[in-house]
Each structure stands twice: as C-alpha cells, then as structure tokens.
Design brief:
Elements lengths: L3 E7 L5 H12 L3 E3 H8 L5 H10 L12 H8 L3 H25 L4 E5 L14 E6 L2 H12 L3 H9 L4 H6 L3 E4 L4 H13 L5
Parallel strand pairs: 1-3, 1-4, 2-3, 4-5
Helix pairs in contact: 2-5, 6-7
Length: 198
C-alpha cells in the first residue's frame, strides 16, 4: 500500500497548529514540520547561518551567535529579492529532511506541515493537500494578536505568501477555520476518513 502523505498548509495564523495538534493527539499521526527543519537549517554554527551572516553582517546575529530572527524578518518581509535568496538556501535543506522522514517512517499515514508548500515547490512530496482557511480580517487580527504586530507589519507578512484564495483553489481538502474550534475539528475528522484519489 502506498503511503498517505497529507500536506497541511494555509495562510499565516489561519490555524495550522490547531489542526496539527489535533491530528497528533486524537489520531496519533506523525507530524513533520517545515518550520522546525527551517530553524535547524539556521541553527548556531550551521553553514546556512554562516552564509546569511556573510551577506547581512554581524548585526544579523544575537550575542550568543544565534540568528536574530527579528532583524532577518525586517529584511526579508520588506525585500522580495532578499527573501528569495534566503529561501533558496533553506528550502532545499527542508525538502531533504522531508524526503528522509518519508523514506524512514514505517507508518502508512504521515502529515507534512508546510506553510510554503506551493511557494517552495514541495506539493509533489505529498499525496493530498489540506488548506486551513479563514476570512482575511480574521487572519489579520489573529496574526496581530499572536505576534504583537501592528496592522502594516501583519499585512506585509500575509502578502509575502501566496494568497489564501490561490491556496484554496489548489487544495484537495479545505478546512474552514472561520467558526468554532469544534466545527474545525469535525472537518478534520471527515477529511481523514476520505482518502483522496481513491
């Protein structure tokens, strides 16, 4: 039997973590997270962090030699070319980690959480695509609240990704997180019971 590989994506602050936690706790599914791999890619002393520091100077590093994420965020969320350059270093590393995880896992169903599934060209790693969605205003308010950003900063982060409409258009499963938590989790239950392509 071929593996069922769910690619979970969506916009920033739409509720991917809520869905991920539920899949892990209620269904005991293994979760492989692009954000964790991306953090590993720029860990202290890594070649990728070295390349970033070479490009942007010591100001991009914290006193302990780790990455100053806030500083890097200021650069890449305001300059498309710089974001492309940084992602060009990180995405191949993340893809490689996913491929290893898929190959090594003996389990029949895996969940890859990939916020930039389409942008990073990783849709071909999965057998079905789940997109967590909500209204634009809800997304904006959740992001402002969660990351303590002002409206302009939040908009810049949202606009740095492919639009939610485009992601929804390419989804096999749409999880609408505009309503209650219970309503969202019920959609997850239904989606898991339907095997895409069968």
């Amino acid at each position: 039997m071929t593996k069922r590989i769910i690619g979970l994506t969506g916009g920033i602050a739409t509720g991917k973590t809520t869905v991920t936690n539920y899949l892990a706790s209620a269904y005991d599914l293994p979760i492989f997270d692009a954000d964790i791999y991306a953090r590993d890619a720029v860990s202290r002393g890594s070649p990728i962090l070295g390349a970033i520091a070479q490009r942007y100077g010591e100001q991009i590093l914290l006193p302990d030699g780790g990455l100053n994420r806030q500083k890097l965020g200021e650069i890449i969320f305001n300059h498309q070319n710089e974001r492309n350059w940084v992602e060009g270093l990180i995405h191949p590393y993340v893809r490689d980690r996913f491929l290893k995880a898929i190959t090594q896992s003996p389990l029949p169903t895996l969940v890859l959480v990939v916020p930039l599934l389409f942008e990073a060209g990783m849709a071909n790693l999965v057998t079905e695509i789940w997109v967590v969605s909500c209204s634009q205003e809800q997304q904006l308010q959740r992001l402002i609240q969660r990351n303590h950003l002002n409206r302009e900063q939040a908009k810049a982060r949202i606009n740095s990704q492919l639009s939610l409409e485009e992601k929804v258009a390419r989804a096999d499963v749409i999880l609408d997180n505009s309503f209650t938590l219970e309503a969202l989790l019920k959609q997850v239950d239904v989606a898991l019971k339907i095997r895409i392509g069968n």
